[in-house]
């Protein structure tokens, strides 16, 4: 998407507008996102909020409830980006989930925010991965795709070069780090469910594999493999407020 398009689509807080915004003369200032994309985004949010595989108790229950003294809380969301994954071709979205809470009549309300990358796994289940707000904000400021920036941030490299299996990726490298030592002990289990086998595995805190193969024990993700040396990278996950728990990828 072009830089100028990203800026025109956004509201005063950087959110993508679902409806046209008019100036005082009744002229449309910014285009609204299409109804087709609105439906996709809403479905992703709904499915992620209903997910049973969460990292901790809690999911998304949007709405608000306040008493006659203004005490209560509200939970809502806004869309910050949408595009298709360059590898899977499935739709992705970045949303902000925002909680406003006021516990006492004369107290100022507090606002807490989480940002999530939403998408679908190979079995069509929806994931919500907590991401860094500043990465999203800087992409918007630069007028480029927050999803592109976030995916590069997740794996600390150009996402287009990755071979991904859920939240684990094989990243091509020329050679292992010099201090990486041979690993003797058979397959390596990554994140408790990704089984890595290879002609040679070397490690120095990071894991490097020659001609790697990886399978996912639950079978949510298909097997992947690569030729040559690869570094095994686990996607970063931003700490999040527990009012909106991310799903397990």
Spatial separation of the terminal alpha carbons: 27 Å
Total separate domains = 1
Biggest sheet overview: 6 strands, antiparallel
Radius of gyration: 21 Å
In percent, how much strand structure appears in the residues? 35-45%
Could you give the order of the helices and strands?
Answer: HEEHEEEEEHHEEEEEEEEEE
Number of continuous helical runs:
4
Give start-end ranges of low-pLDDT stretches: none
Helical fraction equals 10-25%
Helix vs. strand class:
alpha+beta
Description:
The protein is of the alpha+beta class and 249 residues long. 16% of the residues lie in helices and 35% in strands. The protein is built from four helices and 17 strands. The strands form four sheets. A six-stranded antiparallel β-sheet has the order 8-9-17-14-13-10, with no helix packed on it. α3 packs across α4. The radius of gyration is 21 Å and the shape is elongated. The two termini are 27 Å apart.
Describe this structure in a few short sentences.
This protein is an alpha+beta fold. Helices cover 16% and strands 35% of the residues.
Which SSEs are present, and which pair or pack?
Layout: H1 3-8, E1 21-22, E2 28-30, H2 35-49, E3 63-66, E4 72-84, E5 91-102, E6 110-120, E7 126-131, H3 133-142, H4 146-155, E8 163-165, E9 168-172, E10 181-182, E11 188-190, E12 194-197, E13 200-203, E14 207-210, E15 213-216, E16 224-225, E17 229-234
Antiparallel strand pairs: 1-2, 3-4, 4-5, 5-6, 6-7, 8-9, 9-17, 10-13, 11-12, 12-15, 13-14, 14-17, 15-16
